[in-house]
Specification:
two-stranded antiparallel sheet; Aspartate Aminotransferase, domain 1
């Protein structure tokens, strides 16, 4: 996950899936019913990496594979587990394509 220090938001997670382009993963997740974003919350819909991510992690591979997930207050543990399974499947499929 892409986080640092104590300035973290409890309902938001930014993860880099090295070897998997963020844009391709976002399309696969959308088709599977999982909402996610590549940019910061302030620039939803943009594929540009978060300025914070650019500053904290200079590695280009991290930027190009970073995806942001946000939870709602009503998100259940079962929904999270389902999302993890779908994300895992999508990442594996995309990585296998090279």
């Amino acid at each position: 996950w892409n986080g640092m220090g104590g300035n973290l938001v409890a309902n938001t997670l930014n993860v880099s899936f090295i070897g998997c382009e963020a844009e391709s993963l976002l399309i696969a997740l959308d088709v599977a019913g999982i909402a996610a974003s590549a940019g910061s919350a302030c620039s939803a819909g943009s594929l540009d990496p978060s300025p914070v991510l650019l500053h904290a992690f200079p590695d280009e591979a991290i930027h190009g594979s970073a995806v942001r997930f946000s939870l709602a207050r009503q998100t259940s543990e079962q929904e999270i587990e389902r999302a993890v399974a779908i994300i895992t499947e999508c990442v594996a499929r995309l990585r296998s394509r090279g």
